[in-house]
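Ticket 4471: requesting a sanity check on a complex prediction with thymidine-5'-diphosphate. Repro inputs:
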Amino acid sequence: MTFSPASLAVTGGAGFIGSNFIHAFMANNPACRVVNLDSLTYAGNLKNLSALAGNPMYRFVKGDIGDAALVAEILAGEKIDAVVHFAAESHVDRSITGPEIFVRTNVLGSQVLLEESRKHWQSGAVPDFRFFQISTDEVYGSLGDTGYFTEETPLSPNSPYSASKAGADMLVRAYHETYGLPTLNTRCSNNYGPYHFPEKLIPLLIHNIINRKPLPVYGDGRNVRDWLHVLDHAQAIETILKEAVPGSVYNIGGNNEWKNIDIVNLVCDLLDGRLERDPGENRRLITFVKDRPGHDRRYAIDATRLKQDLGWVPSYTFESGISETIDWYLANQEWVNDVTSGSYREYYEIQYGGRQ
Ligand code: NAD
Ligand code: TYD
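Returned structure tokens:
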């Protein structure tokens, strides 16, 4: 039977995927209330959600997922039917230079959310409940030239980021097995699209090309990532939330593998045209740099289970998705300039007067 939440708590909704999910979900489900709990780290930007200002079905709460009292208050006060948990430290390079916050947020923060969700669900305050852990294919580790990650692939994370996400996935499994908490857990491949923080490869390339800055390519540039448009990810999450059996784990991906250097060349060439530069001009910005330590060689997702069980398939082709994404960044230079300068932080003060 379809699960139809009346009140959803989204964590990390001011980030890249969370904000895209909130827009898509609220458009598809206007009768569902959405409460967004986000601590607004460097990656959280309320401008991503400015279109929702004044919408009575939406509420923003500035706070940490590790704050048990706040989480309990939201779950009970808003009669939350489902928690969709995006909040995380999400950048591999940052996890290499500072792993501690990754453990604090991604492991300990997730445990607090799970524990408060368990209490809320066991209190019988809502007729049915889901805890939805948004995870990553990076928990499976790295592939060689062939093969795919399935849901049965053992977790074998290599970076502090992926280790912290795997830790949370394990806790989600444990809360389902031990307490029967109705959990869902998805592992998605690399996303791209609007509102992507320009420390990640694709928005960084676009930003640097526009500003004629070097394009750092790690190692030999032949590492492979499997790219999915963020709105395809959002649609998959909505489908799984409503239709999947509690306890399920699903991979999400669109069979779209690219070597990094090929993506870099593609974005350079598309922007040559858009920026009316000479053919090949942007490629001259490419700079091979020292490799990321422990750099996973290849990710590739087998999402057969999701297609077979729930009929989800991506709707974007990479060609249309990357073109639209480039156009979005060109049309939203103010957004990019704000996040690179950090001035978006003031937006919270202006919109909320510094209060919760
Ligand atoms: P992001 O870094 O853009 O956003 C993370 C959000 O979480 C930010 O708004 C931040 O303020 C918030 N946050 C961080 N710590 C918090 C805390 N302690 N309490 C409350 N809020 C906190 O990340 P993203 O790329 O949107 O990723 C979202 C989720 O999806 C993550 O769990 C990530 O592991 C997962 N994921 C990402 C990708 C990808 O390609 N970006 C792919 C698969 C899975
Ligand atoms: P990234 O967007 O950081 O995502 P993830 O590491 O989670 O897959 O990086 C995507 C790929 O691009 C990854 O193989 C590392 C590489 N990369 C570069 O070559 N140069 C860069 O400046 C960045 C940020 C990433």
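Notes from triage: DSSP finds twelve helices and twelve strands in the chain. Leaving this open until the requester confirms.
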